């Protein structure tokens, strides 16, 4: 339609949401479908957090709050950054938003001028490039390699930097690969960034607490204090606290940037839900012991899925350090033919084949900028994962 903004022509709908929707449609039609496309924990929000929300309703905390978060929540976030990351932030340096996605788009909207470049390592979370395009920026995609654990190499980062570079987005642990940067790996990247004072760092730490095998999580401003003045450290309660539907994301950074984000939010959504904010205070200040227990459960699932996918003909699955995804290569099935006579030419073809023949919904690698791969979310029970992987093995074995 002629009156729709031209900027929308640059943006495509979220492929991960599309897969989840398609799986739901097939289930509604009576198909037995296992959905491994969702990016949310299957655990429930802890009871103490729910109770804090109920108490907030009883206490009448149902009015508008300051546009970018209550003083109580900002204080809790400041304490979290100090306690867990060794970072000192004043509440004036903190923004609270309607989910992590909102934090990211606010930050890009506040900083990007037409033609500014944003370096995005691939595979990437599906929304980074589209958000950049929506605000008039230019996504600069830097492909990583499976043999390097899907991590951005310092020399590749340096090659991608130009005078127009505004941001580099680092997501560790990563959606979709689960790759997480060690302190040394991150230091090599921050050493490069120190040479380019015009480049800012957007660190998406949403999966901070979902790490395995004694991995030590670190964030860029913690590893290199000299980058603190030009780093936006982004986090939220969605993944660690199983609060995806509560929609609370937050970030900390320089006052000037946070003020710009507040201005945007005051004229768009205004404050995040007052009740969700009260719940988030409890999440960040209440008991934290369950985080390790849930990470241990995810690790068992990871090991199960990695083992079974590596036993599937034509698939190769790396072992990730965090998050709840694996990103297997399906290069070994490209060029093979299905029992119905269709040649598998792309990772989308393979994922369509899995859904149509075995009722397993996964997301194709092209959606994340690196093919031929696909993403599996293992945020579901071991029983369901075992059955899903058995079906994937069966589908691979049927290819000729």
The strands making up the biggest β-sheet line up spatially as: 2-8-7-6-5-3-4
Strand content: 5-15%
The computed structural class is: alpha/beta
The coarse silhouette is globular
For this structure, what is the CATH class of the largest domain?
A: Alpha Beta
Helix content: 25-40%
What's the number of structural domains? 2
* Count of alpha and pi helical runs: 13
Mean pLDDT: 96
Stated plainly, the CATH topology of the largest domain is called Aspartate Aminotransferase, domain 2
Instruction: Give the oligomer, counting copies of the same chain as homo and different chains as hetero.
Output: single chain
Following the backbone from N to C, one meets helices and strands in this order, namely HEHHEHEHEHEHEHEEHHHEHEEEH
Largest sheet: 7 strands, mixed
Task: Please provide the count of β strands.
Answer: 12
What separation lies between the terminal Cα atoms?
45 Å
CATH homologous superfamily designation of the largest domain: Type I PLP-dependent aspartate aminotransferase-like (Major domain)
Our Rg estimate from Cα atoms comes to 21 Å
Q: What's the CATH architecture of the largest domain?
A: 3-Layer(aba) Sandwich
Low-confidence stretches: none
